Amino acid sequence: MKISPVNNTTFGYNVALNKELVKRLKKDKSNEQYNTVYDMNKNCNRLEERIVRLEGPDRKSLSSHETMIESLSYYFIEMKSQLCEAVDELFPDLHFGEEECTQYEEEAKEFDIPESAEGENGPKPAYIWRETLVDGLQMQLFGPEAEFYTKTNSPQKAKASASKAQGANGLLEKFEPASTSPKSLNDVVGLKNVIEDIKDLVVLPLENPEEAQKRKDEYGILIPHFIVMFGPPGCGKTMTSEAIKAQTGCDMYKLDLSRVGTGFVNESSSNVTKAFDFLKEQAKKTKKPVLLFMDEMDAMLMKRQEAMGGDREDNKLVDTLLQHISKAQDNNIIIIGATNMYDLIDPAIKDRAKLELYVGLPDDDERMELLERELTKFKMGVDLARNKDEIKELSIALRPYSPRSIKTLIEGASRIAWRNQRPLIKQDVLDAIERESKDKINEKEYIPKTKNNSSRIGFKA
Questions:
Q1: For position 235, what pLDDT does the model report?
Q2: Alpha carbon of 183 to those of 180, 243, 248, 287: distances in Å?
Q3: Which of 10, 344, 370, 437 lies 20 to 30 Å (CA to CA) from residue 93?
């Protein structure tokens, strides 16, 4: 990350100011309010450092971790705003909120927003989290008349505020299929072993209750009510969860764990409890299992601190979620968790998973199937799709790319063919690969170090 030329700056927050704050908070360890603010400050600093690590030096890695940074920044912006408000109330002489606001504003000026970061409604949130934070802090400090340093109308800030205001229902988003959503598990290409496990252990019992009861009576096998899918980004974890919903006909709700939190002890865990209470009632109403999809699990369910100085709210949230996972079977809730960073998740959470599935890069045959499927979606790609030799060559060239990246590369190749007013050819795809080489995935980075991994992890009794 490029550091702002302001003195005492690192990761955005002012080091000298932070040291003074910590010094004051440690003076009275019996003061519960001081302890709460101390934990909030520690959480903020730790989370911000993680965001900056994901960005990489001079933000070179930002595009590869855009979704994760956006999710984490939602939580960070709200927590930082609450921290500034709490510190200003305790120690008004520090002018904490104002100093931090100035610090982030100076740092934001160091970065240019590339054209690739422009979305439909302005710059993508992951690229402007500093500006969005400045916007929020200035609103908090100076009211609606403040002149904000922003490059957008801050939809990110509005989204974060809305999640807090809406309560339990605002934490859950009911999944409504789009035209591009999978209609069944057969629409998921490149995950043969994963789909096989899900069909055998989840879908079949839900579609055939008599078979499920027989399996339970004869073998003691229950439907896994907590499933964890992990692996590189863009390989199909979210798509698979949507396919489960389509195949089973069960309602599915999405819970973004990075948005359930606040900076205060017990509030995050209370929000999670409200969400699970709502799901329990929905299962009773529909008389069918309810699916809960938790994306980016590592955003809030990182390993708990072992020492006394651990982050109490993080620990409380993990403890609360463990309780609800234990009750999921009785409450007819099937939890599907997804993460790119398996090793960061608290071990107790992972131990509760009844089915763990590694969702990795497709093999050569699966990649060929994916290429053929994508190319036959439009007329000018059909000829290339039918050329088995060239498809095999492209499959080899695309080995380091996720299915999502492959679809993007096909779109890029199509634009090349369109500009030349001819059918799509192999060289168009190779040219697109050359242009997007930054999207390559080193799968070793995503294979857990804490377990003996394979493409099929399987069922835990």
A1: 92
A2: 9, 6, 10, 22
A3: 10
